[in-house]
Amino acid sequence: ATGLHNVAVSKGKLYIGTATEMYKLNGDAPYAAIASDINEFGMITAENSMKWDATERTQGVWTFAGGDDLVNWAIANGQKLRGHTTVWHSQLPSWVSSGGFSAAALTSIIENHTTTLIDRYKGKIYSWDVVNEPFNDDGTFRSSVFYTTLGTSYIATALHAARAADPDAKLYINDYNIDGLGAKSTAMANLVAQLKADNVPIDGIGIQGHLIVGAVPNNLQANFEQFAALGVEIAITELDIRMTLPVTPGKLAQQKADYKKVVAACKAVPACVGITVWEYTDKYSWVPDVFSGQGAALPWDDSLVKKPAYDGIVEGF
Ligand code: XIL
C-alpha cells in the first residue's frame, strides 16, 4: 500500500487524517490535491470552523458556511469527518465566557449549542470531540466558565445532548498532555470511568498529541492500554511534533523516529482507531504562531515535499 491512509488501513486501523480548512483548499491547488487524496487521508477535521466562536459567535445566530463546505468537500472525496469541537473554554465567544449565568441557564446554553451543531451534521460525522481540554496539566479540572458554574456536570450534559443529536457519532473527550502516563492521563481515565459508571454516553478518548522532537514520552503504549481498558476507543487527534528552529538534518531524523514511535504505539493497541495530523504541511501549521521559535512539526515541509517524518509514519505501521 502507498499513502499514509492506505498503509494504516492495511494494518487494521480506520484512518490517517488531517485538519484543514476550506479557505486554504480553495486558495492553494497543490495543497488541496494532497489533502483530498484518499490514499493519504481518509479523515478530515475542521481546524477552526466548527468551534463555538465560528458557529455561534452571537447567541442564537449560527454560521455554518465553513463547516458545511468542508463536510461536503470531504464526503465528495470519500473521506470521513471528525467533528471538533462543541464545549471548550478557548475560542469561546464572550457572550459565553463572560459568565454570570445561573446553573440552569448555562446548562441550557450548552445543550442548545451542542444539539444545534451536532444535528447540523447528523449522520456525516464519524466522531465528535464533545468536550475539549477539561483538565489542567496537574489533573485538576480547568476553571472554565463551564466548570466554575456547573462543576463536572457540564460534561455529562454535553455528552447526553450529543448522543441525542446524532446517535451514530462516536463521542469523545479530547485533551493534550495525555500522551504518556502521568497525573493528567490518570485524571482522564478516572473521569471516563466515572462517566461509564454513571451511564453517561462516552465512546472515545482523544489524545491531541502536540509533542516535541526528542521529548516524546516512552510510556505511550502503557497509557493507551490504560485508556483502552476502560472500554472506549482512542484516537490521536491533533498530532504534530515540533522542533526549535532552524531545521537541521539531525532534528529531522529525530522527528522521524518520534513519529514512528507514536504510530507504533497506536498500532500496538487495537482500541487506537486512527491518527490525525494537525494540518499536514509546515506551510499551514499553527505551531510557529503559538510556540515562539518553534515549527517544522508536520510530515510535509513548507513546499509540500515529504519529510523524513512521513517515512517515520509509514515505518511505525
Ligand atoms: C488551533 C488552531 O490550529 C489554530 O488555527 C487556532 O488559532 C487555535 O486553535 N488544541 C485544539 C485545537 O483542540 O482546536 C487547537 O487548534 C490546537 C490545540
UniProtKB/TrEMBL annotation:
GO terms for cellular component: extracellular region. It catalyses: Endohydrolysis of (1->4)-beta-D-xylosidic linkages in xylans. Residues 19-316 form the GH10 domain. Its EC number is 3.2.1.8. Keywords: Carbohydrate metabolism, Glycosidase, Hydrolase, Polysaccharide degradation, Secreted, Signal, Xylan degradation. This is Beta-xylanase. Pathway: Glycan degradation; xylan degradation. Its main location: secreted. GO terms for biological process: xylan catabolic process. The active site is at E238 (nucleophile). The chain holds residues 87 to 403 of 404 of the full protein. It is found in: Secreted. The keyword Protein transport does not apply. It is an enzyme of class 3 (hydrolase). One of its GO terms (molecular function) is endo-1,4-beta-xylanase activity. Belongs to the glycosyl hydrolase 10 (cellulase F) family.
